[in-house]
Amino acid sequence: MKHRSPHVKAPADSSLDGPDANKLEYIKGMIQVADDDAKHVMLYVTLTLGTVVLSLTQIPLTTTFTMPHWVRLADFVAISCQGLAALCFFLYIRKVHLTKMYMTRCLVTLDAHKTRELWAGETGVWKRYGNRYKWGRTLTAIGMAGFGIVVYYLIVLSKPIVLSKPA
């Protein structure tokens, strides 16, 4: 049974057996969709790695070591989850890139059916590797929650740090 979104309707004539010009445009369009998908997911890679870098560079180790154990644990979980999320997203992007290369091979033969199968079929990239993207999103959410705990502690619960004035 194929899943269809209730608000996305396929055209009445969605046959891929039309004129060669239509097949060519379809294949080019699918390659563009794959390219856009990879760019979109790369934003998640940037977000997840950026939060790790921000945490490691903006919270001094002296501050980290003085935080309670539960806050340090939240920080560790957050950094770990964000790193794993970036890896999951990258692995998904890699498979999208390979699929895009396979779809490009379909340009020579104008095999629109193979292009659709590679992208959205039963053995398509989402069916086979979409779990990497889903894990990346889940780990990102967990990591952001962990960073939220750390920031809440630093802003609300911790005592203000008094800087000494130069003599």
Give a quick summary of the entry.
The protein is mainly α and 167 residues long. The protein is built from 5 helices and no strands. α1 packs antiparallel against α3, α1 runs parallel beside α5 (125-157) and α3 (69-109) packs antiparallel against α4 (112-120).
Question: What do these coordinates show?
Answer:
- The structure is a single chain.
- The protein is mainly alpha-helical and 167 residues long.
- Helices cover 77% and strands 0% of the residues.
- The radius of gyration is 23 Å and the shape is rod-shaped.
* Quaternary organisation: single chain
Total beta strand runs: 0
Distance from N terminus to C terminus (CA atoms, Å) equals: 76 Å
Mean pLDDT: 87
Overall 3D form: rod-shaped
Helix content: over 70%
Low-confidence stretches: none
The run of helices and strands is: HHHHH
Biggest β-sheet: count, sense, barrel? none
> Which structural class do you get from the secondary structure elements?
mainly alpha
Gyration radius from CA atoms, angstroms: 23 Å
- The number of distinct helices, counting runs of at least 4 residues, comes to 5
Strand content: under 5%
